[in-house]
Amino acid sequence: MKKMILTGSLFAALFSFAADGEVVKRVLSDGVGTGLSLLADESARPHGVGFERVDGVYHCNNGTTDDVQRGVMWSITLNQSEALPIAASAWARAEGLSGATNSDFSLYIDLVYMDGTPLWGQSAAFDPNPEAGWHQRQVVVTPDRPIRSVSLYLLFRNRSGKAIFKEARFGTLDNKVLRFDGAVVEQAIPPQRGFLLRDVAARSDFVALEQEALGVRLTTRQRTAPGVTFYDVTLADLTGKDRALTLVFTRPLEGGALTWFHHPRRSVALENKINEVMNVTRQDAGANGLLSIYPFGAVSADGQGMAVGLDPATPLLFRIGCQPHSRELFLACDIGLAPEKAQASFSIALFDFEAVDGFRGALERYYALYPAAFETRVKQQGIWMPFAPISKVEGWEDFGFRFKEGDSETAWDDAHDMLTFRYTEPMTWWMALNDSGPRTLSRA
Q1: Averaging pLDDT over each range in 55-64, 95-104, 164-173, 228-237, which range is the top one?
Q2: Which helix (H) or strand (E) holds 324?
Q3: Nearest-CA neighbor of 245 among 200, 180, 195?
Q4: Could you tell me the pTM of the whole model?
Q5: Which residues sit opposite 140 in a β-bridge?
Q6: What pLDDT, in 10s, does the model give residues 260-285?
Q7: 115 forms bridges with which residues in the sheet?
């Protein structure tokens, strides 16, 4: 059977494109909580050691102890007949806390679906810095199955100090609410192929971007070859200020059966699904802390393979995913701009592959698009020794050492044909705070 491949110009002709700055996806992250119901004080139960309630405000005081579990908990029965999104919100502030931002001080949800399977640990961490004062967090779950019950927690555990909570709310949302790049959105206009921009620092919506929007200029150059379009992208700030931005390339998918190729051994059928899918790890950076494990993401739509990937020569903090309800394959990247460096450039590729070959077919195609990135430059291989001197290993010749991390004995390494790499941490900088004051970024 002969395939039909839609070229960029033909695909564009099938859709009316939004104007620069027009809202494509409306972000609800700051507005969901206003429509939720306040959870009753009399329904609150203690978690762990529990809490003290004063005028509807919940106090969890661990004092100088850092191994105590405290919190407030509500049990909510839903018995949904259809899968509808749920949302919860609450306010909190810290007194005398230290440590990292994590789920030990958080709004936290566990739920059970109608079929009895659970979903644990949907959480939003509060800021442990006392200088943050009262601040709100919320959790939104977009389920693929009807929900039976929810356990909602205001958690304070495994750290000293005091946490104070108030105004816990919960509610069910309508089925127009979706997850897109980790954000809770409503689709304002139909999806379209091209770029979207979000000003994360200003908590803006996702808007269309072809040339200029939100004080940013986009320049793109397209290069095409059979079955692939390369995009060379430059994003430049026009305001003269520090910027924290998310740029998204999105490609709507044709109708028919939709499959996400998660990794070489797993594929996910997306029929009747509304949750976006990604293969990511978590990092303490970017708009949502998500970073794709692989440099491309691939789907099959009605038997046609389509993938989007990053040029490995232009690294990014990025994630690739598929939103099955709006039927979009997308690549989102976080970009920080400053007056001292007001623009950033990178390249991506949109390419097809044989869907029957799944993830491995997309990987083979990606190798072919970027062969220089996968060339083996070190012909003699061997194992890696971190920090410890190889010369001190009894019978070191039997282990096949080739690489050494650390510069403790470079002369010996050179004499025995070891490749030495100095250890560096370019992403961190350690600052000494010599007194007993709080370890906070603002104080540093």
Answers
A1: 228-237
A2: none
A3: 200
A4: 0.76
A5: 87
A6: 999 999 999 998 888 899 999 988 88
A7: none
How, if at all, do strands 161-172 and 37-38 pair?
antiparallel
d(CA 46, CA 49): 7
Among 25-29, 248-252, 436-440, the least confident range: 436-440
Nearest to 194 by CA among 305, 330, 103: 330
What b/e readout covers 206-218, taking b as 16+ CB neighbours within 10 angstroms? Answer: bbbbeeebbbbeb
Residues 6 or more apart in contact with residue 216 via CB below 8 angstroms: 197, 209, 235, 236, 237, 238, 243, 245
Q: What are phi and psi of 192, to 5 degrees?
A: -145, 155
In this structure, what token pair is assigned to residue 88? 């919860």
Check if the beta carbon of residue 88 is closer than 8 Å to that of residue 169. yes
Note the pLDDT tens digit of each residue in 418-430.
999 998 888 888 8
Which pLDDT belongs to residue 235?
98
Mean pLDDT over all residues of the chain?
A: 91
Residue 239: half-sphere exposure toward Cβ, Cα within 13 Å: 12
Please state, in angstroms and rounded to a whole number, the distance separating the CA atoms of residues 192 and 130.
43
Rounded-to-integer distance, Cα 229 and Cα 226, Å: 8
| Residue 175: closest CA among 38, 36, 272 | 272
Cα–Cα separations (whole angstroms), residue 116 to 79, 146, 147, 273: 11, 10, 9, 18
Tell me what percent of the chain is helix, strand and coil, each rounded to the nearest 5: 10, 45, 40
Q: How far is the C-alpha of 303 from the C-alpha of 162, rounded, in Å?
A: 56
Q: Tell me the pLDDT tens digit for each residue of 53-104.
A: 998 899 999 998 888 999 999 999 999 998 888 999 999 999 988 778 899 9
Which of 154, 176, 7, 146 lies closest to 73, judged by CA?
154
